[in-house]
């Protein structure tokens, strides 16, 4: 993480910063304690612990269960929850948080209203589908899926079961609104017709070649693998005990999509939003013959999007350029970013706190800022990028039918899970 505000910074902020702003806190005081949303956590590694700290600061939510394949992590999460809620009891004690290794145990509970999923990418789809079928509302980390076919399955299950789904693409809500400002400038034509977009993220995923190590006591390694191919344990994938870093599983194609999908799920998402492509995507993929940058997407309207750039997102139009990252937004000419968006111009969906937006939508049953369809489409761009780098040949993609014009590429749209994890 080379950004000034990294995912680690985000996690620390989530632990330290109150989840809800003052106006909503005032509203919370009117609520009965029994009116809270009962929330379960599936995955309490570094990212999950960050989210846990944020939700423990909310009187809108009651954390009632935690799940992880590593005993130390789930026990620590249970302890944190019970210590936090114990402070609200006259006795100073609270014992109402269940800790399990199998997420199905908590998804079967009728009293649980919603789940937050912060597992490795290859473990997003199973709990998403099962939670939707159990009528639980869902907040799932990005990138939404390990492969394209999984995303369509999630979208269908969410729609069928009418659950409120938020993808954890928090750039749509946070970072002082810089990405929202950039999107509004582009959508309102402030740089003229968009010609090129550059996305400054790292490289694609690679095959896992790590050596086998002894499985630590208290770690359910077979369950960590889940639908992924069977292989030996390595602590780079699933660190021992409680860790404070983001594990290396993100780099390997068996479990994730490399930095193209990890940070790319954030920045390609903003590009899709700015192009009004939340329900679609590019139609051509042109990878370089070598190297891990320079792949080029083409949209049906002729806009080109290139993997690689000097900022998180760079939008180049006929009459100007906008550059936006988590720490700043600039433009050429400079006046572009200084000009306010008028009341009658197009404005982004209003949200300045991603988790609070989800909670409010769980209450109202409205759609949140980053639905399952949006999360799936943004993740698909990341997957298309990885397929392009793997095959190193031009490809055509049909975003409506969600298939390639190439048989070899179509084999990478889905992955057959291990038999015991088929759902």
Would you give an account of this structure?
With 423 residues, the chain is α/β, with parallel strands linked by helices. The chain folds into two domains: 7-172, NAD(P)-binding Rossmann-like Domain (Rossmann fold), CATH 3.40.50; 175-204 and 260-421, Dihydrodipicolinate Reductase, domain 2 (2-Layer Sandwich). 34% of the residues lie in helices and 15% in strands. The chain has helices at residues 7-16, 22-28, 46-56, 71-86, 103-107, 125-133, 148-161, 178-187, 221-225, 258-262, 264-274, 335-338, 354-364, 372-391, 407-410, and strands at residues 37-42, 61-67, 98-100, 114-117, 137-140, 165-167, 194-199, 284-286, 296-298, 304-307, 313-317, 320-324, 329-332, 395-398, 403-404. It has a nine-stranded mixed sheet. Strands 3-2-1-4-5-6 form a six-stranded parallel sheet, with helices on both faces. It is globular and about 65 Å long.
- Determine the CATH superfamily of the largest domain: Dihydrodipicolinate Reductase, domain 2
DSSP strand content:
5-15%
- Second rung of CATH, namely the architecture of the largest domain: 2-Layer Sandwich
Strand order of the largest sheet: 13-12-11-7-10-9-8-14-15
The CATH top-level class label of the largest domain: Alpha Beta
Biggest sheet layout: 9 strands, mixed
Task: Summarize the amount of helix as a percent range.
Answer: 25-40%
């Amino acid at each position: 993480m080379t950004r000034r505000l990294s995912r680690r910074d985000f996690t620390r902020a989530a632990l330290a910063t109150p989840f809800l702003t003052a106006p909503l806190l005032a509203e919370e005081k009117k609520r009965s304690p029994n009116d809270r949303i009962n929330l379960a956590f599936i995955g309490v590694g570094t990212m999950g612990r960050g989210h846990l700290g944020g939700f423990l600061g909310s009187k809108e939510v009651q954390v009632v269960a935690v799940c992880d394949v590593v005993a130390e992590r789930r026990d620590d999460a249970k302890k944190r929850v019970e210590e936090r809620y114990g402070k609200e009891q006259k006795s100073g004690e609270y014992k109402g948080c269940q800790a399990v290794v199998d997420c199905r145990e908590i998804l079967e509970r009728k009293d649980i209203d919603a789940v937050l999923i912060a597992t490795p990418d290859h473990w997003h789809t199973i709990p998403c589908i099962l939670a939707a079928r159990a009528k639980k509302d869902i907040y799932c980390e990005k990138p939404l899926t390990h492969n394209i076919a999984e995303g369509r399955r999630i979208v269908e299950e969410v729609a069928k079961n009418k659950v409120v789904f938020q993808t954890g693409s928090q750039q749509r809500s946070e970072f002082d609104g810089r990405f929202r400002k950039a999107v509004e400038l582009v959508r309102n034509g402030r740089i003229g017709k968009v010609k090129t977009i550059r996305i400054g993220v790292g490289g694609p995923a690679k095959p896992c070649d790590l050596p086998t190590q002894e499985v630590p006591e208290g770690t359910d390694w077979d369950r960590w693998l889940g639908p992924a191919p069977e292989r030996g344990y390595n602590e780079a994938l699933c660190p021992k005990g409680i860790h404070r870093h983001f594990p290396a599983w993100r780099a390997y194609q068996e479990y994730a999509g490399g930095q193209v999908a990890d940070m790319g799920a954030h920045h390609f998402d903003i590009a899709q939003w700015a192009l009004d492509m939340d329900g679609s995507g590019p139609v051509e993929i042109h990878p370089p013959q070598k190297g891990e940058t320079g792949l080029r997407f083409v949209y049906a309207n002729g806009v080109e999007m290139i993997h690689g750039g000097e900022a998180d997102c760079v939008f180049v139009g006929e009459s100007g350029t906008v550059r936006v990252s988590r720490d700043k937004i600039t433009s050429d000419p400079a006046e572009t970013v200084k000009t306010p968006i008028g009341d009658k111009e197009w404005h982004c969906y209003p949200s300045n706190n991603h988790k609070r937006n989800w909670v409010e939508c769980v209450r109202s049953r409205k759609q949140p800022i980053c639905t399952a369809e949006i999360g799936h489409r943004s993740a698909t761009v990341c997957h298309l990028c990885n397929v392009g780098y793997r095959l190193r040949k031009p490809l055509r993609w049909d975003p409506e039918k969600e298939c390639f014009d190439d048989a070899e590429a179509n084999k990478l749209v889905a992955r057959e899970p291990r038999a015991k994890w088929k759902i």
